[in-house]
Write a sequence for this structure.
């Protein structure tokens, strides 16, 4: 049997057998302090669908994430992204590699996490997993935008607290475009959420309250070192809902509303994630010649 | 093989299986201690045997990957059947589930509703007790 077939079978086996019921936060933009558990792999596919403001075209921007828990205090993630604009074209817009490091081993009132990301994308990127700086005025065609490459470094300070059943998360974002001089851009994201359930039932159920969590997030740009003002910045407010469909898969949805004239008036985000528990251990075992 | 031979063989096999099941990789972290106030917290579900099934479900969802199906501990994860674990108060176990110990591989489960964390404690109390072997 070819190596590719064996790998495909292995993946199917992992998907069929491994189960992990993650404490999936419902947020799309805001990060909390819960990292991926060591050795777990989460595969997620999401989309941002936008009703564009006047003079621009609506778009759908899908992305895929592969998130791996390297250590209990370190999560690494690769993104692949694209977009399709109405009355224009569909294209691949680049990739990102992010790393999150939890600074304190145990739970505290405020739990800091450091986030570093390298992006190799083009100007047509529309996934909007962070909003920084000032909003773009015009919207040139995808053919023009795809030729403008952005290599960017992004850093975030993530502060997150769990109080009772509530989570409060604050993200402070800085981004530097290495491809041209735009200064350092700033942004923020705030989130509050809670699981809807109390006691867990003893049986499997798909629609009970314990499978849902809900919240609200707000995010936007805070200008840049070249223009440190809120003028022409975009801001959004977005209710979020997560439904833990099975023990290892989650569906999330978030309608977002633009708060300024430079924001997109409406964003709809949807996502599906699947977590493979013990992926690293199983893979290592397989490559060492194990049979389980 | 005579009956005595079989008995020795089966005994050795079971002994080896027991040793492997006991997770010799587990070492307690002496710095991971619940504050006195947290350790003294009372379990609001104490005496509620009806919530144990839910605790079992949560254990299977969140814990068996590291602690094993019967809590025996895999790799460096704690053997939850040992007296050194079972002697700890409900408040201590709740605190440890809540706060985690990321540098030693224990995730924080503060994202779970409080009542579900107490349910986990209730289920841990139903694990079979094992005598310390070391």
């Amino acid at each position: 049997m070819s190596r590719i077939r064996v790998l495909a079978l292995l993946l199917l086996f992992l998907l069929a057998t491994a189960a992990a019921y993650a404490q999936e936060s419902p947020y799309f933009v805001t990060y909390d302090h819960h990292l991926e558990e060591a050795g777990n792999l989460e595969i997620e596919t999401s989309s941002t669908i936008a009703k564009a403001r006047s003079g621009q075209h609506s778009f759908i921007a899908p992305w895929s994430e592969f998130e791996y828990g390297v250590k209990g205090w370190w999560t690494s993630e690769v993104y692949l992204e694209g977009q399709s604009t109405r009355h224009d074209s569909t294209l691949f817009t680049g990739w990102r590699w992010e790393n999150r490091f939890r600074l304190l081993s145990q739970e505290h009132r405020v739990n800091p996490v450091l986030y570093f990301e390298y992006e190799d994308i083009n100007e047509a990127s529309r996934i909007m997993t962070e909003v920084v700086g000032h909003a773009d005025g015009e919207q040139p065609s995808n053919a023009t935008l795809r030729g403008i490459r952005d290599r960017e470094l992004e850093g975030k300070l993530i502060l997150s607290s769990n109080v009772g059943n509530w989570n409060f998360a604050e993200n402070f974002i800085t981004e530097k475009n290495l491809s041209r001089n735009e200064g350092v851009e700033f942004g923020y994201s705030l989130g509050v959420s809670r699981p809807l359930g109390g006691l867990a039932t003893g049986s499997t159920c798909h629609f009970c309250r314990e499978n849902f969590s809900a919240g609200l997030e707000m995010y936007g740009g805070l200008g840049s070192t070249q223009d440190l003002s809120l003028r022409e910045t975009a801001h959004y407010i977005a209710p979020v809902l997560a439904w833990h469909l099975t023990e290892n898969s989650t569906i999330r949805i978030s309608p977002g509303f633009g708060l300024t004239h430079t924001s997109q008036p409406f964003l709809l985000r949807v996502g599906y994630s699947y977590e493979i528990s013990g992926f690293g251990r199983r893979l290592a075992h397989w490559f060492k010649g194990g049979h389980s | 093989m005579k009956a005595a031979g079989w008995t020795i063989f089966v005994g050795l096999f079971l002994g080896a299986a027991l040793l492997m099941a006991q997770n010799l990789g587990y070492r307690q972290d002496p710095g991971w201690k619940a504050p006195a106030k947290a350790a003294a917290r009372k379990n609001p579900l104490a005496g509620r045997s009806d919530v144990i099934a839910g605790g079992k479900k949560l254990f299977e969802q969140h814990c068996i990957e590291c602690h094993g199906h019967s809590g025996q501990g895999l790799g460096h994860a704690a053997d939850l059947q040992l007296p050194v674990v079972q002697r700890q108060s409900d408040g201590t176990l709740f605190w440890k589930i809540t706060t985690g110990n990321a540098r030693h591989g224990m995730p924080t489960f503060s994202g779970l509703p409080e009542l579900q964390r107490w349910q986990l404690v209730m289920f841990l109390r139903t694990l079979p007790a094992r005598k310390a072997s070391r």
Observations:
- Residues 3-17 of chain A form the longest helix (15 residues).
